[in-house]
Amino acid sequence: MISSEAALEDLRREIDRVDDSIHDLLIHRVGIVQRIAQVKREGGLRFRPGREARMLRRLIARHRGPFPKPVLARIWREMLGATVRMQGEFSIGVYAVNGEQGCWDLARNHFGAHAPIMLHASAGQIVSDVAGGKATAGVLPRPREDDPQPWWPLLLTGEGAMPRIVARLPFAGRIRGRAEDIDAVVIACQPPEDSGDDITLVAIDMADTVSRATLKSAMRRCDLEPLFFASRHDPNKAGRETTLTEVKGFVLQDDKRLQRLAGTPRGGIQKVQVVGGYAVPLAERMLAEG
Hints:
By secondary structure, the chain is of the alpha+beta class. Among the domains are: about 10-40; about 200-280, Alpha-Beta Plaits (2-Layer Sandwich). About 40% of the residues lie in helices and about 20% in strands. The chain has helices at about 5-40, 50-60, 70-85, 100-110, 125-130, 210-220, 255-260, 285, and strands at about 90-95, 115-120, 135-140, 165-170, 185-190, 200-205, 225-235, 240-250, 270-280. The strands form 2 sheets. The protein has a 5-stranded mixed beta sheet, sandwiched between helices. Strands 7-8-6-9 form a 4-stranded antiparallel beta sheet. Helix 4 (about 100-110) links the parallel strand 1 and strand 2 (about 115-120). Helix 2 packs antiparallel against helix 3. The protein is elongated, with a radius of gyration of 22 Å.
């Protein structure tokens, strides 16, 4: 009769064999990533938030057993962060002011424990660094309606290719600690990707006489479902304001719905500009056990 200790040793050796197999597959995966990096030297996106979102959704959907889904997602996020850095220089500017480092926690959780992060107390500095190539990406607080000094209008100024919002954090469940009640977005000088389930952010330059209800009705008539509004009055543009809104779906700048929205209602809307988009984060029910 096999003793319990001998049975345990057999199981431990089996775990070691599984670990070796996992490691071998990881080495093989890295080899594929290196081949991708060779192709990307001829052009291509630095990182792929949309593809990463599709990947995590697929893995979470196929997962079974008692291993926690948020931990599974964290393992893949570490791997994705590491392989992105293998494909070229990669650094992140992160917003942190008055000792609040919730965005730092979100960035570290998303891009990996060894991601090169630079902390800044100025959102403008982060936007400038990303626009100028000093940082590959920036992590900033998610725009909100009650922000007295919103940073998002910075994406509408400047010359050349300005950064765009390309991801929302957290994507795969909230982490405990300083970032437990914080939402952030990632900006980068690349267009957002269609992940199959997305939110698009649109900036609308309009007369300040256009009410929120009128704007909402105009958007719905153009088959655009608004989810969120935040407005900013520019003192240099008397009688006008810029409103940031989130709409359901992946919407490009040349979308005919945006073209219909421009010029309505009665010429009150002057300009409609896509400032980014992000994959809808995984719902808590998708990450629950079972």
